[in-house]
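Late entry, cobalt (II) ion complex.
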Amino acid sequence: MARRHRIKIKTPVEIVKMRAAGHAASAVLVELSQALAPGRTTKEIDTLAAELMRKHDCKSTVIGYRGFTGQICISLNEEVVHGIGGPRIIQHGDIVKLDVTVTKGGWIGDNAATYAVGEVPPETKRLLMTTEEALYQSFQYAKAGLRLSELCGAIEDYVKSQGFSVVRDFVGHGIGRDLHEEPQVPNYRPQGKSPTLEPGMTIAIEPMVNAGVAGIKILSDGWTVVTMDKKASAHFEHTVLITDGEPELLTARPREATAEILGL
Ligand code: MF3
Ligand code: CO
Ligand code: CO
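Prediction complete; structure with ligand written out below:
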């Protein structure tokens, strides 16, 4: 049924609500990132996320989602995405991916970033910068009238030009009342016919980039995705509204807050 798979166009009133959800998601992400420090467990960060969500009058979208038990996804080093907070202690030199997804007023905002906790090797820094830059490059293609495949292909091309690999097993997505709506937004040029972007579409664009091979596996907790070769992986995500002109980042945050070494 074509209808079932149609990409939802949000109305102006719905966009106002998406904006509120997006702002809450980015505020929680930025405030949470400020709490990252060596010696803290990932569970402490997860618990703090719940407090920050209360403060910003929103709730975790992912807790309970298909049995997920975290308030957020928190993934270290070779963990790609979908890590769950636990007793693991954050160490100096770790890179930490925070993926914060919140529901506010029935609408969802989804965003993620990768943070270096203290000094990391130059190659790791380059991985973070490349991943964030791939996301930003994609915004040039987040325009009404263009095919989604051009946006996806731009991410792949940029990442490859830097000598890194894009994860193919997980993709970005449409977003709205539901966390994962049509269309899929892969980080590589998809085969076949691709939808044309239209004003009012809202999509979560989220490059996942590996320093080594693209391959991943899932740990025995059934959730945590890790790189096959145990090399580092980075992830950045924004919820983006397609407009008549420039895309609007519904989860906008100061760019300098990310892909940066956290001062300790
Ligand atoms: N925030 C994730 C995304 O970007 C959703 C993860 S679902 C979970 O799509 F259950 F793993 F949290
Ligand atoms: Co996310
Ligand atoms: Co997402």
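The radius of gyration is 17 Å. Will revisit in the morning.
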